[in-house]
Every structure is written in structure tokens, then in C-alpha cells.
Write a structure and sequence with these properties.
The complex is a heterodimer of chains A (about 200) and B (about 100). Chain A is mostly helical and about 200 residues long. Chain A has one domain (about 5-195): Cytochrome c oxidase, subunit III, four-helix bundle (Four Helix Bundle (Hemerythrin (Met), subunit A)), CATH 1.20.120. Chain A contains 7 helices and no strands. In chain A, helix 1 (about 5-40) packs parallel to helix 7 and helix 2 packs across helix 6. Chain A is elongated, with a radius of gyration of 19 Å. With about 100 residues, chain B is mainly α. Chain B folds into 2 domains: about 10-60; about 65-95. Chain B has 3 helices and no strands. Classes of the chains: A mainly alpha (about 200), B mainly alpha (about 100).
């Protein structure tokens, strides 16, 4: 006899975890709001240092990868294993592209002496230093989530290839997908707050 | 068996339309950012971001097709977040 699987329960568990992630980033956005309120000029100066093109490119990469992850679930439901694998590989490549982009972006900042505890930041106004502190904390934590999301998607990919994830049982893929969408969701708010409004 | 909720299959074309909407909204928010709207800069950017987030949540994350437990708990989380942000900011802004 097959063991009964509580599909809804599995999903609710993932959502409860995602709520804690929402509040984690929510707390950081509160910090951003409060310091933006206190140091609007310094934040505007800091925002000028960020590259809109980099930010937009990374936004598009994450949006497209969210689409391919959602489509891979449809593919599994329709028993198109090859297509699902292709879509997951593509999503992983998008995650990698995001990280490479971020590497060059951070690298350019380091090159301009804009990194935590750098002489330039220590000598500048406190608001400017706080802006970059928040920038590295929030984009760094988000980058960590991108890496975790990629690990989850890679595990799902292997399980699909081994037929452990199938049209009958795909909760692992669904929950990895939810995590990946959350990463996208957080970036949707990080992007305008750091790259656009200042 | 109660399968109709979790077995909802979203067609590829429909998902692609959602992606197109998201890309369009990204173009809008980047486009308007080149104009200085004064104090409206942040509200405009957050409004567009919230619209994008709604699309991702409803369709990519499937909330539209989930049962009451996930819908209600999600909305409750958003309320907690709103209280966290507004009360903290309220305190700081009028101190």
C-alpha cells in the first residue's frame, strides 16, 4: 500500500518558513527606511554609485528564471521529463549569471574603495557609510539566498532525472520553486530601493 | 480525493504572459526613474514593485489556486509586516 502524502501540509510547512524569511528581510527594509529618512542626501549620493544597467540586467535574469521554474512544474505535471530538466538547467544558469553579475558589481565597488571598513567610507559622512553597510548586508544576504535556491533547484534536478520527482509526487520541486520565487520577490523590492529611487 | 487544488496546471502560454507583464513593469519602473518626481519617487517605485510582487505571488507562487490556510496565513504575515514597518517608522518620523 502506498503511504498517503499530505500535499497541502507539505506546502504549508514551506510557506511558514517563507513567512520567517519575509520578516527577516522586512526588518532590514525597516532599517533602510529609517536611515533613508535620517540621511536622505547621503543615500542619494550612495545611490548614484550604483549601476542601473547592472541592476536591471539582474532583475530580468531573476524574472526569467522564475518563469522557467514555474514552467518546469507544468512540464513535470504533463510528464515531460526532458523539458523539465532543460528548464531547471536554464534556471540554474540564470542563477549563476546573477551571481557573476553581482561579482563584477561588487568588484567595481571594491575597486572604488567602497567596501565595509574602507578608508573612504570611514572618512565620509555617517549616512554614506550606513548606505553601503545596508547595501552589502541586504544584497549579500540576498546573494546567499540565491546560492541556497540554486542548491535546492540542483537537488530537484537530480531527483527529476532519477524519477524521484514525477507527475505523482513533485512537492520537492514545488517547494524549491517557492523558495526561488521568494528570492525573486525580495529582489523586486531591493532593486528599486537601491538602484532607482535615489 | 481532494486533488483539484494542488493539481491545477498552469499552461506555458499563461506563464509567459505573466513574465511579459513583469518585464513590462520593470521597463516602466526603470523608465520613470529617469524623471525626478520629488517626494513621489519612493511611492511610485514601491507601487510598481508591489504590482510585480502580486503577479509573482498569485501565479508563479500559485497563491490564487491555494486553499484558505495558505491565503489567510499569507495575508496575516503581510499585516504583521505592515505593522512592523509602519509602527517603527511612525515612532522614528515623529520622535
Amino acid at each position: 500500500m502506498e503511504k498517503a502524502i499530505d500535499k497541502t501540509g507539505v506546502k504549508i510547512g514551506m510557506w511558514i518558513f517563507l513567512y520567517s524569511e519575509v520578516l527577516l528581510f522586512g526588518g532590514l527594509f525597516v532599517l533602510y527606511a529609517v536611515y533613508f529618512h535620517a540621511f536622505p542626501e547621503d543615500f542619494a549620493l550612495g545611490g548614484k554609485e550604483l549601476n542601473r544597467i547592472f541592476g536591471t540586467a539582474n532583475t530580468l535574469v531573476l524574472l526569467i528564471s522564475s518563469f522557467t521554474v514555474a514552467a518546469s512544474i507544468t512540464a513535470i505535471q504533463q510528464r515531460r521529463k526532458g523539458l523539465a530538466i532543460g528548464l531547471l538547467v536554464f534556471s540554474l544558469l540564470c542563477g549563476l549569471a546573477f551571481l557573476i553579475n553581482k561579482y563584477f558589481e561588487w568588484g567595481a565597488k571594491f575597486h572604488h574603495d567602497l567596501y565595509p571598513n574602507s578608508d573612504l567610507l570611514l572618512d565620509s559622512d555617517p549616512g554614506f557609510n550606513i548606505f553601503f553597510g545596508l547595501y552589502y548586508t541586504i544584497t549579500g544576504l540576498h546573494g546567499l539566498h540565491v546560492i541556497i535556491g540554486m542548491v535546492l533547484l540542483a537537488i530537484s534536478l537530480v531527483l527529476v532525472a532519477r524519477n524521484k520527482i514525477s507527475a505523482e509526487r513533485y512537492a520537492m520541486l514545488e517547494n524549491s520553486g517557492l523558495y526561488w520565487h521568494l528570492v525573486d520577490l525580495i529582489w523586486i523590492f531591493v532593486f528599486p530601493l537601491f538602484y532607482l529611487v535615489l | 480525493m481532494n486533488e483539484h487544488e494542488s493539481e491545477h496546471i498552469l499552461p506555458y502560454g499563461f506563464l509567459a504572459q505573466i513574465l511579459a507583464g513583469l518585464v513590462l513593469l520593470t521597463a516602466v519602473t526603470v523608465g520613470v526613474s529617469y524623471i525626478d518626481w520629488g517626494f513621489l519617487n519612493v511611492p511610485i517605485a514601491l507601487f510598481v514593485a508591489s504590482s510585480k510582487a502580486t503577479l509573482v505571488l498569485l501565479f508563479f507562487m500559485h497563491i490564487k489556486y491555494e486553499g484558505m490556510v495558505i491565503k489567510v496565513s499569507f495575508i496575516s504575515t503581510m499585516l504583521v509586516l505592515a505593522i512592523l514597518i509602519s509602527f517603527t517608522f511612525w515612532d522614528v518620523a515623529f520622535r
